[in-house]
Amino acid sequence: MENAVAKGNAGDAELRALGHDLRTPLAVINGYAQLLSSEDLSAEQRARACELILEKCEELNAVIRRLLEPTDSGLQVPVPIEQTA
């Protein structure tokens, strides 16, 4: 029973970490997207905002790739091998 509770707590911690890993880049993307809608930004500030948005999108892609790695490896189809003498 204690083992199941420990596993549940570990799963909760992993979900909280995942939420943080997703929320942080999203907050940056949201903030800079709102700034881009402002007419008061210079061309240099707009370019920097776009760079940061793209950078944070890459971070989100990395999180998603990490999430899917175990799934991808589980989808491998075994190849039959014939034994020869």
Structural description of this entry:
The chain is an all-alpha fold. Helices cover 79% and strands 0% of the residues. The chain has two helices and no strands. The protein is elongated.
Protein topology:
Layout: H1 2-36, H2 43-74
Helix pairs in contact: 1-2
CATH H-level superfamily title: Signal transduction histidine kinase, dimerisation/phosphotransfer (DHp) domain
Domain tally:
1
Q: Please, how many helices?
A: 2
Report low-confidence residues grouped into runs of 5 or more: none
What's the architecture, going by CATH?
Orthogonal Bundle
Alpha-carbon distance between the termini?
A: 50 Å
> Oligomeric state of the chains?
single chain
Radius of gyration, CA atoms, in whole angstroms: 21 Å
Query: N-to-C SSE series?
Result: HH
Question: What's a concise summary of this model?
Answer:
The chain has 85 residues and is mainly alpha-helical.
Write out key terms for the chains shown.
85 residues, mainly alpha, Helix Hairpins, elongated
